[in-house]
Amino acid sequence: MKLQDFPQEIRGSILPKPGGKIIYRCLSCNEEFGIEKLLYTCPSCGQVLLLHDMEFDRLKQRTPEEWRKILDYRKMSNEPAVSGIYRYHEFIGPIVPLDCVVYLGEGHTPLVEAGKQLQEKAGGRFFYKNDGQNPSASFKDRGMASALSYINFLIKSGLVKDVLAVCASTGDTSASAALYASYLQPDIKSAVLLPHGKVTPQQLGQPLGAGAQVFEIPGVFDDCMKVVEALAENYNVALLNSKNAWRILGQESYSYELAQDFDYDMSSKVIFVPIGNAGNITAIMSGFLKFYRCGIIDALPKVVGVQSHHADPVYKYYLEPDEDKRKFVPVTVEPSVAQAAMIGNPVSMPRVISLVRDYNEQSGKKNVFVVQVTEQEIMDWQLTANRFGHVACTQGGECLAGMTAALKQGVMDSSETAVLDSTAHALKFSGFQEMYFDDAFPPEFGVTPKPELQNRPVLVRPADLEKVPAPGKPLEREEFERFVERTSQDIAEKLNLSPRE
Ligand SMILES: *Cc1c(COP(=O)(O)O)cnc(C)c1O
Ligand SMILES: [Zn+2]
What domain of life does the UniProt record list for this protein's source (predicted)? Predict the structure, then answer.
């Protein structure tokens, strides 16, 4: 819709102007820092930071009704800057002018209710939110659009130049970082560090395709992360991991979209999210809290983090019911099909601890949970979802496995509705499906295929045919007719087809 066609009282709010006052705040010593420089950890004490809008309360000057109306009308605007995560500009990056916003088509991913049969099988009502339908095929694009829009703003303001963006990745962060950086050539170049042999071929192909410098490092993600942290500490680079608090702001859009998708009714909703480096669950809690504070939603949904038993430090942390006795201990990860979440020492753990406390407090009850699932359950549920019309990645399978665990443990009950985050596109992880179908999982995964979920192609080549077609070598007419007849007969036999009357 054209700007002049919006109702008079809304028109001025469709394209937001820069506002607010954003600062970095340390989660440990509470010290605050300006945002003119890119900071990742507190210069005083080394802890991770979060971004705060010192003037957040100005957003409460609008009534919840006004906010909902503005956001719903913005949906009708074709202006690129408010077509992605910056539809929620005031909550995500209020200081960023719209002409600095980088929009590659991220956000507003489909929310699809599971079919009746799948819901019955899983034992509860649920939706998948297909975050694999982002530009680089994972939710990481939400955070990257925010981080890169901000860096773009710094560049345009002359505060930084010739940025080298770096990140460590379990695959999707680097795919996303490389894509967004390449869009901003030549001002930004990117380099990514990947654990050698621990990302899928598709994920490796993505940053290579976007022209990033790709470095493979021995070890697992946690090792890569240490190297990247050393680079960010000692050299002039822009860190694009979720340690970068701008990433968190962008990923809050997931919560805002869900609120809008459910017409702002978040009561009786349970949000399932896989936990790796814990940036996403941080953002999801933070997003719902902001909307709640402004009254845009009047209930905070339950949030359930899911971890594989092969990478479950956050689950283990919350096993201890007594808050004072909890102690965070990093774990050594074992191979996981939820490879994008295969992290033993999540960078955002201090953020999680602080936000879970806040979230439960605001909810007036325990409202954040973490459940643990097995590798076997992840694969079985991922494939089952696919069998019933849902393309979920392995992490999406992890969420569905997590929902069944939550139902069993009474963390969720049958009156509630779940939303499962399928955080990436299934095709990135098709190698695991292949291993399942071929019963070729290395023993460390502990996955034994269920025959009813396996599937294989069948080669049809009737033995009595002397010749079959080959590329560049078509058959003669009679030979070809025989080929078509015999091959269709064979298929009909295999499918048990009855002939037409
Ligand atoms: C990064 C990633 C995760 C883990 O998210 P965190 O924010 O690191 O907890 C899960 N699934 C996919 C597909 C990812 O790319
Ligand atoms: Zn500090």
Answer: Bacteria
Domain 139-248 in the same topology as domain 111-135+252-453: yes
| Measured CA distances, 55 to 23, 26, 90, 283 (Å) | 10, 18, 11, 19
Q: 340 in ligand 1 pocket by Cβ < 6 Å?
A: yes
Ligand nearest to the CA of 176: 1
How far apart are alpha carbons 5 and 111 in whole angstroms? 29
Q: Does 186 sit behind a cis peptide bond, omega within 30 degrees of 0 on the bond before it?
A: yes
pLDDT category, 233, cuts 50, 70, 90?
confident
For 111-135+252-453, CATH gives 3.40.50.1100
Distance 312 CA to ligand 2 centre (A): 27
- The percent of residues in the chain predicted with pLDDT above 70, rounded, is 100
Q: What is the pLDDT of residues 14-28, one digit of tens each?
A: 999 999 999 999 999
Statement: residue 311 has pLDDT above 90: yes
Give residue 273 CA to ligand 1 midpoint distance, Å. 9
Helix, strand and coil percent figures for the chain, each rounded to 5: 45, 15, 40
How much is the pLDDT for 393?
A: 98
The response to whether residue 276 sits with its C-beta less than 6 Å from ligand 1 reads yes
Among all bound ligands, the one having the nearest atom to the CA of 378 is 1
**Average pLDDT score over the chain:** 96
Token digits for 393?
Answer: 């990645």
Q: Are 54 and 23 in contact (CB under 8 A)?
A: yes
Closest residue to atom 2 of ligand 1, CA basis: 340
| For residue 37, pLDDT beyond 90 | no
Q: What global pTM score does this model have?
A: 0.96
Q: Which helix (H) or strand (E) holds 376?
A: helix 375-387
The total number of residues written for the chain in this structure: 501
Q: pLDDT per residue over 261-271, tens digit each?
A: 999 999 999 99
What's residue 59's pLDDT? 98
CB burial readout 28-50, b (16+ within 10 A) else e: eeeeeeebeebbbbbeeeeebbb
Q: Classify residue 451 by burial, with Cβ atoms within 10 Å: 0-12, 13-18, 19+.
A: exposed
Cα atoms in the 13 Å half-sphere on the side-chain side of 262:
26
What ligand has the least distance to the C-alpha of 248? 1
Closest CA to 410 of 299, 270, 308: 270
Indicate the CATH number of 139-248 among 3.20.20.150, 3.40.50.1100, 3.40.50.1360, 3.10.300.10.
3.40.50.1100
Q: For 100, which DSSP code? A: G
